[in-house]
């Protein structure tokens, strides 16, 4: 075994041993590889015998069946879906044909009376709704939140009391790109969760970065206009690597804290499943005694926080632009449910609303977890995929002002604008004020709002007096005080002051916290951050924009500024002040711990020369370890097709790529396949006669460059030699014994990457 030292006293090793023992005992996992598009496999010929619609796949769910006014309804959530075995019009009339317009003879003109043609085209012409201005590209899942009860002393919110289970719907997203953009661009990510609580809907609208670009919502249109594609050419798509973005952030230096986060590995998450979420703002919590506490919300993934490396992200954008949404859906379909702990940081609710010198109302500042620990208060598990993307993921409407008793706002000026703006967004996108009646948005609490009529009204209201006070409807609905669960704003004092368009002095420091973030990163993360700045600024045209940004970087760290300037071919400016001595926050680094391997994807390369029993062992062991195996072979189909137990191939050398894998194991060293020539597949190009298929070499070299665990049986060692990868390099396991090989690779997977392959700059 090369490149890894086995420590059998390590608790990870005992976990891996139990996996191996289960496989030895024949405990085969019943899980299947995710990705099947429908609830059952289709017949070869087009079906002609009428039958009812297929049920959704087992991993799919729809919004709970409720009326437009929140009442539960008996029946399945699928009762809203299409019904009947025959094609009908929107009015329920069965149709005999939908392939041909009604014409005056086979070659004659189309007749105006074709009502079916008119209806079909009309609906198609109006299928699209305006996409979100930001967060347009998203993926989502249903789930459940179970409260630990540890927040009950600071909030009376019912869903945060001990043992309470609350249905949820969570949507992840990129910010800048359109709906059709790629997933793995360098960008901020949204992490929005809708809690269907017994007291009404609560929305926690978060990002994967704990701070924001701006301190005041009035600047949000400027930020988005700067970050979006240039208005003359509408390029670049889903990228901040252009002049208008860097022009804005270099002139508006309060944005530098968020910007350095995006330039770090945090800007390119490995998966939504390995991404933190932050509520950004400070909120005011109220407990059952009326006592108040200031708090920040954080989501902590159970799998740890991990990112892609930049080259991986670029390859993903080409070979699989749906990388993140596919990863989320496949994990849920495979039964490997993503989990996050909801945590809170709490602070005394003092008149100053500061903590350890940090202004809690400044959304460009974070509070280090070393000063205010993140306290777990509940567990979110995503366990069902949507049944219909448009009806659920696209139409879900989040709003920072969807609050429940026990959670109130503060005077954060960015939050104030969000409370105002979100409703305008829903009015435009969802066609009117009744968006809360869409199935995905319906509360799981009784609704008696006296809001009437409007576009898309689906409730059928009774009564004659939708006003207060009234006697004609018996006075109903009645107000609810605090004892009845009414939402009452905290009577926080408002300081008497003159009306001004100013920011407090405490908002003026734009560089201390970016410096803290930089100093908190490991050496390899710092180098990746430098590369992020160099790439993005290198895409800018105007020298003044680059030089102005370097001035800002000089106020953060000399080494950072010097290396970025070097990459741009420009001199590094000196800082305008002496850089402060800021203590780092180790919690901000992603490197240095071990995490569960649940949900990791392991590629197994084999061909017909491989020992299929060893392939079967690896496949079963990966499954039993709650991971996903992908068998990669020269062609699709099956390995051992002429045996009693053939193995289905998930990826061929044409379709497989290292970026979708967390680890790669070779059972054999396949010789070049019949399609291994550049005219057929450019990846198969080789500058010399190859003894190993060049596409296998490419997978190996990419995975090695991206610091992933690599393994091979001794019989496949020649592939490493052919790819010029030293078999005693860190994170490479070569062994005769397939069980030892599996143990070694999985042990390495707990680190996420082989960080030793990324030496720090000398």
UniProtKB/TrEMBL annotation:
Chemical reaction(s) catalysed: 2 H2O2 = O2 + 2 H2O
Annotated stretches, region: Disordered: 23-109
Amino-acid positions noted as binding heme in the UniProt annotation, renumbered to this chain: 132, 171, 220, 418, 422, 429
Ranges of Basic and acidic residues composition bias in the record: 48-58
Keyword Aminoacyl-tRNA synthetase carried by entry: no
Keyword Metal-binding: yes
UniProt EC number: 1.11.1.6
Cross-link (3'-histidyl-3-tyrosine (His-Tyr)): 399-422
Residues at the active site: 135, 207
Gene Ontology biological-process annotations: hydrogen peroxide catabolic process; response to oxidative stress
Entry similarity comment: Belongs to the catalase family. HPII subfamily.
Function as written in the Swiss-Prot or TrEMBL entry: Decomposes hydrogen peroxide into water and oxygen; serves to protect cells from the toxic effects of hydrogen peroxide.
Name of the protein: Catalase
């Amino acid at each position: 075994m090369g490149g890894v030292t086995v420590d059998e006293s390590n608790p990870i090793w005992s976990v891996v041993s139990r996996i191996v023992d289960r496989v030895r005992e024949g405990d085969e996992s019943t899980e299947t590889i995710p990705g099947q598009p429908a609830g059952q496999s289709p017949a070869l010929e087009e079906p002609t015998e009428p039958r009812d619609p297929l049920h959704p796949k087992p991993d799919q769910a729809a919004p709970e069946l409720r009326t437009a006014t929140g009442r539960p309804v008996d029946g399945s959530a699928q009762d809203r879906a299409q019904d009947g075995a025959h094609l009908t019009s929107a009015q329920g009339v069965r149709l005999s044909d939908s392939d041909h317009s009604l014409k005056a003879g086979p070659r004659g003109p189309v007749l105006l009376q074709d009502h079916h043609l008119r209806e079909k085209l009309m609906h198609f012409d109006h299928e699209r709704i305006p996409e979100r201005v930001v967060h347009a590209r998203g993926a989502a899942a249903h789930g459940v939140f179970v409260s630990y009860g540890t927040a009950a002393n600071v909030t009376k919110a019912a869903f945060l009391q001990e043992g309470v289970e609350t249905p949820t719907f969570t949507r992840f997203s990129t910010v800048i790109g359109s709906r059709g953009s790629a997933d793995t661009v360098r960008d901020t990510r949204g992490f929005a969760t809708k809690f269907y609580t017994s007291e009404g809907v609560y929305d926690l609208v978060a990002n994967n970065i704990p701070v924001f670009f701006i301190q005041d919502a009035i600047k949000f249109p400027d930020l988005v206009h700067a970050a979006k594609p240039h208005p003359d050419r509408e390029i670049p798509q889903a990228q901040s690597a252009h002049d208008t973005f860097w022009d804005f952030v270099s002139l508006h230096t309060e944005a530098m804290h968020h910007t350095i986060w995006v330039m770090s590995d945090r800007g390119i998450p490995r998966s939504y499943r390995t991404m933190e979420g932050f509520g950004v703002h400070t909120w005011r919590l109220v407990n059952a005694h009326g006592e108040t506490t200031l708090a920040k919300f954080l989501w902590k993934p159970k799998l740890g926080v991990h990112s892609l490396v930049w080259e991986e992200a670029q390859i993903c954008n080409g070979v699989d632009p749906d990388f993140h949404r596919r990863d989320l859906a496949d994990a849920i379909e495979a039964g490997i449910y993503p989990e996050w702990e909801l945590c809170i940081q709490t602070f005394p609710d003092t008149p100053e609303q500061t903590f350890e010198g940090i202004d809690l109302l400044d959304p460009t500042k974070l509070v280090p977890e070393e000063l205010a620990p993140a306290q777990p208060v509940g567990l979110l598990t995503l366990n069902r995929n949507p049944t219909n993307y448009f009806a659920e993921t696209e139409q879900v409407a989040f709003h920072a002002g969807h609050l429940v008793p026990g959670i109130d706002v503060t005077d954060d000026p960015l939050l104030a604008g969000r409370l105002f703006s979100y409703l305008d967004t829903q009015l435009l996108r969802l066609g009117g004020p009744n968006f809360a009646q869409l199935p995905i948005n319906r509360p799981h609490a009784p609704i008696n709002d006296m809001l009437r009529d409007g576009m898309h009204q689906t409730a059928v209201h009774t009564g004659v007096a939708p006003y207060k006070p009234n006697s004609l409807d018996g006075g109903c609905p009645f107000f609810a005080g605090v004892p009845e669960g009414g939402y009452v704003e905290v009577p926080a004092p408002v300081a008497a002051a003159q009306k001004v368009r100013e920011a407090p002095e405490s908002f003026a420091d734009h560089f201390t916290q970016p410096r803290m973030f930089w100093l908190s990163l490991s050496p390899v993360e710092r180098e990746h951050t430098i590369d992020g700045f160099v790439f993005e600024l290198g895409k800018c045209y105007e020298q003044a924009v680059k030089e102005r940004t370097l001035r800002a970087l000089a106020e953060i760290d000399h080494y950072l500024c010097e290396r970025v300037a070097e990459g741009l071919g420009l001199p590094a400016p000196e800082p305008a002040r002496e850089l402060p001595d800021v203590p780092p926050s180790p919690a901000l680094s992603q490197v240095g711990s071990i995490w569960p391997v649940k949900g990791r994807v392991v590629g197994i390369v084999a061909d017909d020369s491989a020992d299929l029993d060893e392939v079967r062992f690896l496949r079963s062991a990966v499954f039993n370890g709650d991971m996903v195996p992908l068998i990669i072979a020269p062609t699709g189909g099956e390995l051992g097709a002429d045996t009693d137990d053939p193995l289905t191939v998930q990826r061929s050398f044409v379709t497989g790529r290292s970026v979708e894998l967390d680890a790669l194991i070779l059972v054999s060293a396949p010789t070049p396949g019949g399609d291994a020539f550049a005219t057929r597949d450019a990846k198969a190009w080789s500058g010399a006669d190859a003894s190993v298929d060049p596409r296998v070499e490419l997978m190996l070299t990419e995975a090695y460059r991206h610091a992933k665990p690599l393994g091979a049986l001794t019989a496949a060692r020649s592939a490493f030699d052919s790819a010029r990868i030293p078999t005693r390099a860190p994170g490479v396991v070569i062994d005769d014994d397939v069980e030892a090989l599996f143990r070694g690779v999985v042990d390495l997977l707990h680190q996420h990457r082989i960080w030793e392959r990324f030496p720090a700059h000398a």
